[in-house]
Design a protein that fits this description.
alpha/beta; seven-stranded mixed sheet; 256 residues; elongated; 7 strands
Amino acid sequence: MNGMLFAVAGRRDVEKLFPDFRKIFRLFSVFAVLALTVACAQVPKQAFNKEAHTEVKRIALFEPAKPEEYVVYIANHPGGSFGLIGALVAAADTKSKTDGFTSKMKELQVDFAASLTAALEQELVTAKYDVVRFTPTRAKPELLDSYAGVDVEADAYLDWVINWNGFIAPTATSDYLPSARVYVRLVDARTKAVLYAELIGYGYQHGPGQPIELASDAKYRFGNYSTLIEGAQNAAEALNAATPLIVRKISTDIGR
């Protein structure tokens, strides 16, 4: 029955079943691209050579793009096994859960980007760097394509992007785990050479892309979406717990 439906359903049939087809399809496309990126891409990395870059004393800490959502996602959603209709069901399920959880996090005034930036600024100051904050103009919520037009006095630019924050369950019957991924890059202000680049993950272990995986506390596990929403305060605590771990890793890597 389902197999026949997937085989014969055209776009108009799908739109009857899913009035928000276009919105859901766009969401599905985003997650498809994300899945391919995570599965296939090798993220460029660069260890920081402290001895070779003693001239780096003043760092411009870029404000990262602020994520608009806290995503709740089942990595291996059962709908993914049933063609287009199943994929749309999975995407609709993800959108519904993400919208509900994002609303809860906004109620609790969780701002992962702001907390990360403030904490890293303090870590870099502790590491004996002079730090100045800078808000770049970003065409999209990613690392800048070019640093040629950056107008700030510094020896190096620290650019970063939050490419994931929220909760992920490996399967529909698994616990939801907190998840955050940050890609950070330190760029020489004069030569524009990359001095340091690292991908850092927290909580749910994505694996592909070879991130540095930082474990979350075992108490931050939620058996299902209902308990995640009911325990929103603990969920917010779980996400905020990523902040000191991630910034300490960066500070350790580039500390003088």
